[in-house]
Design a protein that fits this description.
Elements (H helix, E strand, L loop, with lengths): L1 H34 L4 H4 L14 H8 L3 H31 L5 H13 L6 H11 L5 H25 L3 H9 L4 H12 L1 H17 L2 H6 L7 H4 L4 E2 L2 E2 L1 H21 L1 H8 L7
Antiparallel strand pairs: 1-2
Length: about 280
Amino acid sequence: MIDQSTNRAWKSFAWAVLLVAVVVALTPYVWMVLASFKNRVDLLSSVPKWIFSPTLANYPAVFIDKEYWPLAINSVLISVSSTILCIVIGAPAAYGFARSDFPGREDLFFFFLTTRMAPPISIAVPLFLFFTSLGLIDTIYAVVIAHTSFNLSLVVWMMRGFFAEIPREIDEAAMMDGRSRLGAFFFVVAPLAAPGIGATAVLCFILSWNEFLYAFILVAFDGRPLTVGIPGLVTPHGTLWGQVAAVAIVATLPIVLFTFLVQKQLVRGLTFGAVKG
């Protein structure tokens, strides 16, 4: 009886902690959703208003009048393009690290990881000068390449573990059947590692979509994503909080919905190879 009472008490405590964590995590987002439907008077009220007359004026004001809708398209193009580049370049590199034994392999792999460990601001100026010399500054291509550069190490690191969990005998069997090493990778090993590739692609997409620093430094006008457009709503006459909230909702909603839709595949990919038979 004592053990059962103790277990119930611990479960109740765990649920209480979980509930508090959920409330703390969701309250700012709920406030932001409500703020996007408030007028300026309700937003600047000294007493927070939870009951108010909702309005949709903030959305057309920012996305149509201020022409922010192309920024959403830029965010999609940048995130999708950088994710595809990361997977296309990083997956074969990770396969090479997982299957090939060559001198300095671990040192080279550590070098890939150190590119992720460096503070992003430390390479922002060199990237700016590099893209300026190439004539790519203030273009979407500069942001795609920059995002690819800092996400590539994540892809190599994650995918190496996924490929290492697949037995080498599968590669050897495929090559005995007439496949080349490259053919074995593309037609045999890669499909087996599809959950891991999918999970890595989701993480790359989220990191690229949410990135602000490089996009802010490398583009100023036509190639801006949504994250860079938000500071433009801070005016000399005050911050347009309703429009800021509207842009923030549009910027976060795709990620929230996408994560909910692929959460099973994401968990499956992140736990790929964790349990061996």
